[in-house]
Fold this sequence. Notes:
By secondary structure, the protein is α/β, with parallel strands linked by helices.
Amino acid sequence: MVRKEMIAMLLAGGQGSRLGVLTSRVAKPAVSFGGKYRIIDFPLSNCINSGVDTVGVLTQYQPLKLNTHIGIGIPWDLDRNNGGVSVLPPYEKSTSSEWYTGTANAIYQNLEYIDYFNPEYVLILGGDHIYKMDYEVMLDFHKKNAADITLATIPVPMEEAHRFGIVIADENKKIMEFEEKPANPRSNLASMGIYIFKWELLREALIALKDQQSCDFGKHIIPYCHNLKKRIFAYEFNGYWKDVGTLNSYWESNMELIDLVPEFNLYEEFWKIYTKSDIIPPQYVSDTAHVDKAIIGEGSEIYGQVFNSVIGSGVYIGPGVIVRDSIIMNQTKIMDNAKVYKGIIAENVLVGENCEIGIGDEAPNKLHPDIYSHGLVTIGENSVIPANIRIGKNTAISGVTVERDYNNGWLGAGESLIKAGELR
Length: 424
């Protein structure tokens, strides 16, 4: 066994509850993004582009689609005999069976996996952010400062700093204090949830805190190491980084991809984003179609009009259809003369002919106003909307619905229609 200098542990077990019906059946890192990708493609691509060829992916919530997507890691060149990608779900031990109860607990339950490679450094990553980062540059910073721990940080607007874990660092970027979501932040340097640890120190901390309830890096591991007077540094990242943890931030980051000069460029040759691609035919745009400022995935058929939207693979947009300011995910069908305005429609959805989605005035969502907002309509995967239905703004639908589920063919603004057996 060749000792690895640094391996990555990618935390991909999150439910992503703030994405509502989008994640009722799929883990947040497996949600489609940008018409072709899934969210987890970005940290996986960062790893291989940075020369990190050993990645443990820790899964838990609704892992099937994620596991199928990752497979043995071929798209990311992570199908290696020594290293590569390994999917690490919670497993049954001889004495008990435990779910991962926190970010650090998930790593603790996989000590044997990390020990097998005996790395000098361990890179901890989240599976739910959109960004490009060279982790090798961060490791060089870590070594240069003889650090025990390095946190990737990003400057955020001061008025938003209270939403993040905030670090206070000196002029040499050595971290003096941490503040977890402070009411009155004294800094705007936010933790990105990306850490490099000396493995020896991380192992010691994980074992020392193994009985801590819901053991977490930001709340427990890093304060524990700070109290040991360890050298902890802030690596400042100034590139594009988007937490797509809410429906509006998810919608915004997709819309940014289709700007004339996108802030986040998917097409750079020197830092490619890799994904599992099904073998499907090219997209087809008919002579009756009109497409203006859109991403169209492979295998899609467009017969209607698409404006300022992200269309996934294998999507059908029928004649007379209008799709505007929307995200339509893989294999969804929008039937003849339907209208979709500011919708997020998940995979394998059927929207019947003559439907109108995202119309009328706004009203707060009655069930989850904190999730379904900003005028969006969110439809979960495998849902069916029958023909001639009209749907207002700030609404959520999940499941196979029929005409009698609606009030005279209408779902008003702020309403939710979650069929029995659906999670939310």
